Amino acid sequence: MGNITVSDNVIAEIAYRSICSIYGVEPDNKEFKKFRKNIDIERTPEDNVIVNIKLEVPYGENILSFSENIMKTVTENVSQMTDKTVEAVNVVVTGVSDKEFSKS
């Protein structure tokens, strides 16, 4: 048999779609797509995955709970879809947003 390699771009896309589900927006939302560039993937020497995410938390949300939900959802989805061990999901909250993204 051969090898199966999952690229960092695929892992970043899984993380992005996980984040979209928490914000309640569609992945092709033009306003929200700018957050895709705020996802960075690192690999450990053991080929485990570290996901670094910079995001804004919606105003009124508990920052800690919201961030923990992002971490949990991204970890579960990346692990389930790639069979990779997610060593960490690091969330950096860069601001608080009062902007509502349209659901479509």
UniProtKB/TrEMBL annotation:
Q: What is this protein called?
A: Uncharacterized conserved protein YloU, alkaline shock protein (Asp23) family
Pfam families found in the cross-reference section: Asp23
Q: Could you say which protein family the record assigns here? A: Belongs to the asp23 family.
Protein origin, superkingdom: Bacteria
Q: Which PANTHER family match?
A: ASP23_GLS24 FAMILY ENVELOPE STRESS RESPONSE PROTEIN (PTHR34297:SF2), HYPOTHETICAL CYTOSOLIC PROTEIN-RELATED (PTHR34297)
